[in-house]
Structure formats: C-alpha cells, structure tokens
Amino acid sequence: MKVGKKVVTVALAAITSVSMLGLAACGSNGSVKQDKHPTTLKVWHYEEETGAMGTAWKKTIAIYEKKTGIKVKFEKKSFEQIRKNASQILNSDQAPDVMEYNKGNATAGLLASQGLLTNLNSYVKKYGWDKILSGSIGATGKYNDKGVMGSGDWYGITNYGEDVVMYYNKDMFKQNGIEIPKTYDDLLAAMDKFVAKGITPLSEGVKEYPLQHLWYQLALLKANDEFVKNYQMYTGDVDWTSGAADYATKTIKDWVTKGYISKDSTGIDAETSGQAFMNGKFPMYFSGTWWFGRFQTEIKGFQWAETKFPGSGKVPGSSGNIWVIPERSAKKDAAAEFINITLSKEVQNLLGNSGGVPVNADSSAITDPKSQQLLAEFNDILKKNQLAFYPDWPASTFYDQLNAALQDLVNGTATVQQTEKQLKESYDKGVKSDGYK
C-alpha cells in the first residue's frame, strides 16, 4: 500500500518548501535547527577495520578531526542492522550525522522518497563532486521523486567502485592439477574435477547475498541491455520462465545437483562463507571486491587470485555504497566536509593501495600489483558499460524474498518452476508496492 509513503513525502515536501526560504548555511534545513559550531559528529559505517574501506575511513576520521577540531563519534554497525532498521532510525532522534548506506531504488531511493535523506545538490556544487562522480558511478547517488535511481537530485555520494568477481585459491588448484579457468566451459570443467576429488568447489552463503549475486551473474551471461533495463528500470516486463532469468534459476539447481554448491549452505551467511574461503576450505568464492582488501590482509596460508566471472559480459556491480546525511541531522555542513575528505587524494590513494577501487586516486600512486590489476579490470568494465547493478535493487522487499526463494531451491523444497513463480510474484508485488509501476 502506497498511501503511507506518499503522505509522508507530501508532508515533508511541504515542510521543506517553507523552510528552504530561510536557508542560511549550505544545505541546512529549517525544520532542524543547525549547529553552526559542532564539537562532535556521529558517523556510522559497516566496513571491517582490516578491509580497504575500513582502513580508508579510519584515515578520514583522523584527517577530519585534525582539520576541523570536531571529534568523530564512530559507531560500527552491521550491514544487516542498517539495512533492516534504517527508516526507523533515520526517523528518530538516534539518527547519525553521516552514514554509509546501500545504494539503489529499494534502499537509498526509498528513503529519499520518504524525505529521510538530505538533498545534497548544494554540497555537490560547492565541492564539485559531480566532476568526480560522473556516468554510472554517479548514477547511484541521484534519485527522482519516486526514488528511482539515475536522475533527479543528489542524495548520496560514493567514494569507490565495486563489482562481483571470482576468487581462486591458487594452491588448491595447483595441488589438484587443475587450471584456473579462463572461459565458462573451463569453469564447469574445473568444478567437475574438484567434485570428482570430493571437494565442493564453491564457498557459498545462501542466507544472505552471495548466492543471489551468483544467480544474477548467471542471468547476465544470457542477458542483453533490454533485460537489464526491464529488470532494474521497469522499462518492460521481466521474463522469469525463459531466457536469462530462467537460465540462472535452472543453473543454480543444476549446480546443487552436481555438487558444485553444497545443500548445507542454505543457513550460511556472507561473513561465514567468506571466512570459509579465507580458511582454505574451498577453491573458489564468487563475491564482491569489498572482500579484496580483507583477503590481502587476512589470508596467510595460501596464494590467491581474482578475475571477472569467466565468460561474463555484464557483471553485478556499481559504485560502492554511498554516504548519506540524514535529514534529521543538525550538523549537515560538518557531515558534508567529512564526505569531502573521503574523496581527497590522500584517502583515495590509501584506498587503492589497501585493496579498494578508488574513484579519485592518482593512478601512479597505486603501487600494489594486485590492486593495480583490480583497478584496471574495473576501469575496463566501466569503459565497456558492463555494470548491471544488483539483483535485489528493484524493490525494498526483494532482498529477503530472493534469498528465501533461492534457499528453497537449494534445499530442494521448491522446484525450478515454483521458484520462478515465487520470484515473479515477489518482484511484481514489491515494484508495485514501492510505487515504481
């Protein structure tokens, strides 16, 4: 039902239109009295301390405190904490001043349409962020009045790029006499050889995002631009029972049957599946570049490598998560300055050398060979327009529903046809409920 969201949006729009007349500071809103001389800034993000982004944001905090004299009160939250509770938190006095949040229609777009995020247009102009974040990298920060990504006003600012890649335990491949795959057929052959040796090839987590990313990547092997636009931008109907989506669902079922994916992975979350790969229990892991920095830091017992999914044209990926400023923050100017430092050369170069994919680094400053390769791969993906966003983005409820449907498929309680029916119903209902169609 859309009434609640529209009522909130209209009411907040009315308040905003009146209060905008009295603007003094850049981006401030009269509905929340702005603190012109704050002494503290509350920051939330969910990056691991040893990861590339965690390392970079820690440096940001140090630079910010030294430059401004404002003490950062940092609180680490989990991805799930923020994903599930963002709207309630941001509509309360507990809201932070600046927060990392997931991009996309069903997340940042939904909150923007509900009036919970600060319009950043004036800050974008002040700091020149649109000169750094252009094209598909900038698209994830802009939303129209319905919360659809890619146009409209700025509500979020990213600082890095990301995509989903295949990670390989090179030692396990070498020990078993198997070559790192270069093509999709090579990948299937390699997985068959591991299964023949009693080794499950893929570390998988079905409880959270890893398997839905694999499902979407398999769909993208058969997808064209029309499929992506229909799926992500609602320009046409999504075909769930033939073509790309059907291929993905059938292939997941086939891979479970063949032993490429364990049926026991249905209760495993993202962190556990990543840890299993880091501990050397699986030869392959398909997940995001957000793991790259942690793997560089935490994997000690074996050699590893990463590549795009073999045979892929389009890939799951986008800009990284975005920094948003809650509308209820009384420290918007201070929050914007914090965001600006995350885009500084000093922080961006550190991000790149820590295993991240920076958007404003000096390429000559990235000295780590693996990081150079990762950045070159991502730049090539951007050049070829291969980013296809993520499978849960179209509707606010679809993340959980996609996971649940794939869990039933993997554990055998649902057939391919039942899964496709459930996915279609969940997608259509979510898109309609969110007001996109």
Q: Short summary of the structure?
A:
With 437 residues, this protein is of the alpha/beta class. It contains 19 helices and twelve strands.
Topology (SSEs and partners):
Elements: H1 3-19, E1 40-45, H2 52-68, E2 71-76, H3 79-90, E3 98-101, H4 105-113, H5 121-127, H6 129-132, H7 135-139, E4 142-143, E5 153-154, E6 157-158, E7 161-169, H8 170-175, H9 184-196, E8 202-203, H10 209-222, H11 225-233, H12 243-258, H13 270-278, E9 284-288, H14 292-298, E10 304-307, E11 317-319, E12 322-324, H15 332-342, H16 345-353, H17 369-383, H18 398-411, H19 416-433
Parallel strand pairs: 1-2, 1-3, 8-9
Antiparallel strand pairs: 3-12, 4-5, 6-12, 7-9, 7-10, 7-11
Helix pairs in contact: 2-15, 2-16, 10-12, 18-19
Can you describe this structure?
The protein has 437 residues and is an alpha/beta fold. The model is unreliable at 1-30 (pLDDT under 50). The chain has helices spanning 3-19, 52-68, 79-90, 105-113, 121-127, 129-132, 135-139, 170-175, 184-196, 209-222, 225-233, 243-258, 270-278, 292-298, 332-342, 345-353, 369-383, 398-411, 416-433; strands spanning 40-45, 71-76, 98-101, 142-143, 153-154, 157-158, 161-169, 202-203, 284-288, 304-307, 317-319, 322-324. Strands 2-1-3-12-6 form a five-stranded mixed beta sheet. Strands 7, 8, 9, 10 and 11 form a five-stranded mixed beta sheet that branches. It folds into two domains: 3-160 and 320-361, Periplasmic binding protein-like II (D-Maltodextrin-Binding Protein, domain 2), CATH 3.40.190.10; 162-317 and 388-433, 3-Layer(aba) Sandwich (D-Maltodextrin-Binding Protein, domain 2). Helix content is 49%, strand content 11%. Keywords: Signal. This is ABC transporter substrate-binding protein. Residues 1-24 form the signal peptide.
